[in-house]
UniProtKB/TrEMBL annotation:
Gene3D superfamilies with a match to the protein in the record: DNA Polymerase, chain B, domain 1, Helix hairpin bin, Palm domain of DNA polymerase, Ribonuclease H-like superfamily/Ribonuclease H
One Pfam assignment: POL3_N
Segments forming domain DNA polymerase delta/zeta catalytic subunit N-terminal: 136-211
Family membership noted in the UniProt record: Belongs to the DNA polymerase type-B family.
Protein name, UniProt field: DNA polymerase delta catalytic subunit
Compositionally biased intervals (Low complexity): 22-34
GO term, biological process aspect, one: nucleotide-excision repair, DNA gap filling
Pro residues: bias regions: 12-21
CDD domains linked to this entry: DNA_polB_delta_exo
Amino acid sequence: MNRGSNPRKRPPPTPQPPQPSPAAKHQAAKPSPTTDEEFVDEDVFLDETVLIAEDEENMVRERQVLASRLAKWRRPPLSGAYLSQSQSITFQQLEMDYVVGESHKELLPDRSGPAAIIRIFGVTREGHSACCLVHGFEPYFYISCPHGMGPDDISQFHHILEGRMKEVNRNSKVPRFIRRIELVQKRSIMYYQQQSSYSFLKIVVALPMMVTSCRGILDKGIHIDGLGAKSFMTYESNVLFALRFMIDCSIVGGNWIEVPAGKYYNRTSRNLSHCQLEFDCLFSDLISHAPEGEFSKMGPFRILSFDIECAGRKGHFPEPSHDPVIQVANLVTLQGEKQPSVRNVMTLNSCSPIAGVDVMSFETEKELLLAWRDFIREVDPDIIIGYNICKFDLPYLIERAETLGIAEFPILGRIRSSRVRVKDTTFSSRQYGTRESKEVTLEGRVQFDLLQAMQRDYKLSSYSLNSVSAHFLSEQKEDVHHSIIADLQNGNAETRRRLAVYCLKDAYLPQRLLDKLMFIYNYVEMARVTGVPMSFLLSRGQSIKVLSQLLRKAKQKGLVIPNVKQAGSEQGTYEGATVLEAKAGFYEKPIATLDFASLYPSIMMAYNLCYCTLVTPEAVSKLNLPPECVNKTPSGETFVKSTLQKGILPEILEELLTARKRAKADLKEAKDPLEKAVLDGRQLALKVSKLYVCQS
């Protein structure tokens, strides 16, 4: 589509996030999965129904010719070692989620009923797509153990809590809601405490969403014989299940995972995904490789950049309920390659040849849309990119297929029976403000919208594709005004060729921007540094990145993080630093400038500022701490020095600073361009990550 002239396709011209109205602020204060402060799991149940009717329909339509044209773009075939399960499977993971399905009988013979199954999607070094189904990992959280509670009391508490959970989850088929309650020794991250550990209860539940319902019961209070009615503060009950799994298994975003031979079951029949490798394993058998040395390299991801054109009515912006999709341009590039390996354009009606491009023409719009769906399956991209695809292109395709009654079209993800889901969403963050968007679920594939990335990472006067391309690439779109698109379509094969060249350019520019600005390297390295999946970087704010780093370090130290209730994104504001205006003018004498290297991190490390080193006013006098063992801030807070207890925030910052120095030193020594790109992305990610930690 034309992104330079049409106001509905073009993003806002100003980089400033919109200020929410009072009503919008009120809405932002409600807990929501898309806000930056609240993280909630949503159980998706596994559908093992394979759509057999599609193959029959394909045969009826006699689409063998199209299938043979698409087959040349398939991934390389599997080797015999993979098919015989005689070698380990090592792959770089890009996407991770979970579904609810039946417990695996071979891997977990002593369990039955619904269970959470982690799905990890990635690619091997040979370029094979992989779907790893991980079993046995259970959701849990903590509460402080009441004083005087013994083993018998814990058993009674378990029984009471199970009964309350049955009342709340009456329609659930889970045989047991509370799997077990364990007595563990931990310490809260909040405030300096001289005692090394305290008793906590680790509550393990059957399904991730039950963490939320169980937390609600404990927040309201529960009656325990001998202790009376008591409400509980929960700890780490707001940690998303996939993130909890990654932390406990030492997995970071974009790293390489290995499953040894003999530790996995290949799915030879009734595969649930379109991946070449689909296998089941236990979470305890996964080997997570730190992103160092050979395992710091990028896998051969397949990146699809696409763009659509629609024939809008005169004076109207295209609407999927009325206006057809007339062209789809596709470019497929292997990560690290300079040129696309696939260039094609699918057109409605005939189109003259284009040098170096596969032109595929169709007589009906339905044939065009189904051909694009088949193309997605055959090419099997790991990452789908474009400009404004999340808010326009993908939703338009889905809604247009629905208008035409093409029920089999919206299966574009890697799961055979799963249809693409589109819903309106609001992203709210302190840094980025509130933005209306659409959430499109393509299971197993990462969506990377260049428009969203530009708005997050760069301050520009205009975010139209034309302006952004001119700014970074010194290149612009083809000269086709949106008002003549319908006329070009209604002309002849030559006019449609002009439109196809325009459409191809709109698919090519996002790929050029992706390469020029090293987005994949930078985002994968950011995922590795912060420890979150790559998709979290695109769909969530800063809090999840900080929480991930805090949880990992807290786990090492035996600390737990309380689930503090958050208000809306406008809460917790504070006055910024004083900035003196520069005196503009011409100065004959040189002016010395002084810049404090890593100012905020240095202050936090020097004064040991952290949640776990903060001393409450009551504890200052009670603990009778010597003056030489504490630091007092100008605002009156007291923190113990590192001689008494090292803060985990200063420790994280020291590690980030050390890692960045090492990455910059390695960058100077590196000769290979791909290695240099990885190291540069890493040092930038480490730099930005320091700011996230400071802002926590």
